[in-house]
Design brief:
The protein is mainly alpha-helical. It folds into two domains: 55 residues, no CATH class; 175 residues, no CATH class. The protein is built from 14 helices and no strands. α5 crosses α6 and α12 runs parallel beside α14. The longest helix has 39 residues. The radius of gyration is 23 Å and the shape is globular. The relative contact order is 0.11.
Length: 301
């Protein structure tokens, strides 16, 4: 193969040797035989070792005082945060769909059908993707067979995914500017990035700070909301923190009081989990700052 040389596929023992000798990862808290078993049965090398990038290197390129146990711990925290945020995303999706259909129901200018034709023109890709998925979904075959010729908006909203919902809400808000959908229209795209990352099990606790995932400036609406919730605007220049903030604001707006109380309790337990092995991160300002930011978001639910 021309171009960049491919990396060699490693045996498990060679993976550990590379971590120890080339990367400087230590095996004091977790021994190498246990680490090998973890890589064979519980997680995989590429995902687990990417968390090492949260730590500092010395002049030789080796990580400074990083034990394999640290990677295991932060991977576990990251997984639990993803699950938590995905559950929040599902609640948000339900809440926004409810607000959207409530407004359409009360809107004398809408009959429940013409708006679908408008959306088909506005975003044909999302519309066709939704209809195609609807047609192929065996769980929804009865619903499709009854309504495929003349689809009402309440059915389209029921079957659309988060991305299509985002597009539809923006179109509808642009046309009618309902107050109930203002937050959704302004913030849903940013929240979608967090939702998708969690749904696809992408690593979150990585490149949180720095220029890699930085935005020039949050929107004015995000800045105004940051002041309301006492969030440092400078931190919102970091893309992941910005999108996370948007997700929490949407949750505050569209989730029910009982749901917010339940998630806040869950979030508080998750924060305690972050503190369980706090000695691992006592010299890691970036991770500690990320945990504190997460705590501040949970606090305002």
């Amino acid at each position: 193969m021309e171009g960049k040389m491919r990396k060699e596929k490693l045996e498990f023992k060679d993976m550990l040797t590379k971590l120890r000798d080339e990367k400087g990862i230590q095996f004091h808290l977790i021994k190498e035989n246990e680490a090998m078993q973890i890589l064979q049965e519980r997680s995989y090398y590429y995902k687990l070792t990417c968390y090492r990038k949260n730590f500092e290197k010395d002049a030789s390129g080796k990580y400074i005082d990083v034990d394999f146990a640290y990677l295991i711990d932060i991977a576990s925290i990251d997984m639990q945060i993803r699950y938590f945020l995905l559950q929040m995303s599902l609640d948000i999706e339900h809440g926004i769909k409810t607000a959207l259909l409530s407004h359409i129901t009360q809107n004398k200018n809408e009959d429940g059908y013409s708006i679908i034709d408008e959306f088909k023109q506005y975003d044909p890709y999302s519309y066709e993707k939704t209809i195609s998925s609807f047609e192929k979904n065996q769980y929804l075959s009865d619903m499709f067979s009854k309504r495929k010729q003349d689809l009402p908006i309440w059915v389209l909203v029921e079957i659309m995914d988060f991305g299509t919902l985002s597009s539809f809400v923006k179109m509808y808000y642009r046309k009618y500017t309902p107050t109930s959908l203002k937050h959704a229209s302004h913030l849903i795209t940013s929240a979608k990035y967090i939702r998708n990352a969690c749904a696809h099990s992408n690593v979150l606790i990585l490149n949180i700070y720095g220029r890699v995932n930085q935005i020039k400036s949050p929107s004015m609406s995000v800045k105004d909301l940051a002041k309301i919730y006492n969030i440092n605007i400078l931190e919102l220049k970091q893309k992941k923190l910005h999108d996370l903030f948007c997700l929490f604001v949407l949750y505050k707006k569209y989730a029910s009081r009982n749901s917010r109380s339940y998630r806040k309790n869950q979030g508080s337990l998750l924060i305690e989990r972050c503190k369980r092995n706090k000695s691992y991160y006592q010299n890691n300002k970036k991770i500690l700052s990320a945990f504190l930011f997460f705590k501040n978001l949970v606090d305002f639910l």
